[in-house]
Every structure is written in C-alpha cells, then in structure tokens.
Amino acid sequence: MDMNWENDTSGPLNREQQIEEDGLKALMRATAPVEPHEAVWSHMLAQVEQRLQSSRAQPTTSRWPWLAGGAAAAAVLLGAWLLQSFRSTPVLDEPFPVATAAEIEILSVNGADTHTLVVGNPPVEGALELLGPGDVTLFSVEAAPDEMVPEIRFHGPNSPMIWAHLDHENE
Amino acid sequence: MTSVITGILTVVLAQCPQPGVPGPKADEKVKVTVVVILASETGNTIDHRLQSIAEEVRKREQKLKSFKLVSMQTQSLAVDERGSFNLVDSKTVKVVVKQPADPIDKVVLAVEAPEQGEIVYRSKCGKFLPIVTRYQTADRQRLILALRVQPCKGN
Lengths: 171, 155
Fold this sequence. Notes:
The complex is a heterodimer.
Chain A: H1 15-30, H2 38-57, H3 64-87, E1 108-110, E2 136-141, E3 151-153, E4 161-163
Antiparallel strand pairs in A: 3-4
Chain B: H1 2-15, E1 29-40, H2 51-60, E2 66-78, E3 82-86, E4 92-99, E5 106-112, E6 118-124, E7 129-136, E8 142-150
Antiparallel strand pairs in B: 1-2, 1-8, 3-4, 4-5, 5-6, 7-8
C-alpha cells in the first residue's frame, strides 16, 4: 500500500527510496502483534463497565474510615482536654463544714456502736436511771391472747417494773 | 341521795378544764426512748449502762446473769400518734402517747410489747420503766425493754 504523505513537500521518492520504503512496510506488516480475539475485547469491555458502575454506586465508601477516625481522634482530644480541665480545678481552700453536736440528733443506734459517734449524742448517755416508787400509776392492762396478764410492780420499795411471766415462772 | 349527787357532780366537774390550769396542747410532742436489752442465764457480763436494771431484774429472777444493750431508739410522738420501735427478730413495741406532760411532769402512755396486751400507765418523765417481756430469742435470751418519756417541764 502506498503511503501518501500529504504534508511531505520533498517531492516524489526516487527508485531506491521507494524500495527502502516498501521494505519497511513489509517489515511492519510482518512484525505486527496478533490482534486479540473479539471475545477478549468484549470481556475486557464488560469488566471496565462493571467497575465503572460500582465506583459510581459507592462514590464515598472510601471516605467513611477517614471520617470515623477523625471523629475518634476528636473525641480523644476532647476527653483529654476535659480531664486536664478537671485536674487543674483548684482544690477548695476552706475545710469541709462539719455539723455540730447541737445540729445532730441521733434517733437510733446499736448499743455496741455508741462509742463510734463523733458528732451528736445518742438517745441515752451513761447509765439508765430508773423510775422510783410512786413515779408510775397504772390505768389499765389487757390480757394477752392466751390470757396471760403481766405482773405490774408499781408499788413497794423497789423500782417500778412490768414483768410478763414465762410458762414455767411462778409469781 | 345528796351524797350521790355530790359525787356525780364532783366527777363531772373534775373532767372539765379548770380555770388557771393549762391543759395539754394537741400539737405537743413527747419524745419516747426505747432501750432494747437481752438478758441471758449464761455468762456474767453486764453492760455498765444497765447496772440498775440488772440489779432490779435479778431481785426477781437471779438466773439472769448477763445483760446486753442491743439498741436505743427515740421518736417524737404527738398525742394519739402510734410509734413503732424495732426490737429483735422482727419484733416491735407499739407506743401511743395518750396525754403529754402535765404540770407535774407525768405522761400517759399506752404500750403494747411483744406477746402481751396493751398497758396504759402514767409515768414521770426523764427516767426509765423496765418491761420484762416473755419473748425469748432462739438462744434463750430474754427480751427486756426500758421506756422513757421526755421532755420534762420541771427541768
């Protein structure tokens, strides 16, 4: 096939140049690569199209890990800043106020724990002081469901006392 | 007949508030203190705060040798207000103030201790009245209560 160099202004080739050109043409034809089969072209085209479609469907997939990492880093920085703020909070210089004994009323305490009270007075301090003769007057007494009536010892020289009998006790 | 009428009038007039004598105020509260004690026939340990009670109780029952102060509680109760005090083994004692302190510092209480009926009595304030109940714990310790009322107007 003759090559027509439309922009070649050197004029027509002489016989030797023509022979050399023809040889080059033949050589190019002989060494030309084998064209792929049409099925190969079709398969490659299908793959290209498939990848193009998948990239269009998830255009931001690659950005999510970056966003999550950035949020985590921001949270860490914020937490560190807050922790530093709390640590740097000045400690109260004034002592904690403590209630006085007059401000505390102990309503109930176990007998073994009265010595642990730092502030406040227990309901009873020191030895129990008993009523004396004549300090108590009986108004009424009801029997228990089993008809037991306690002994009312309000008279006499001893301290007043109420005594409920056990089954085996004698009056 | 005249004496009967006189007696009836005396009783009726005694119930009426007398001029110059202040009656109890409805909103007046009485502080009731309950001390819970366990006494046993074993050992020989008496809490130093219970010496007086132990001495009086042992006059009646010498078998009780050890006295332990379990707890002490106090409640301020209005007239007719029912107070419940925890004892041992889920037992309670119920106290009702029937009348606050009168001019001679005496208070009327209604007490219902475990396993016995209600007892109503008038007591001087500031000191304790022992109540030896017939309740015994699993290890045969006798439950004893000590009740006191306050305040005392005379002090």
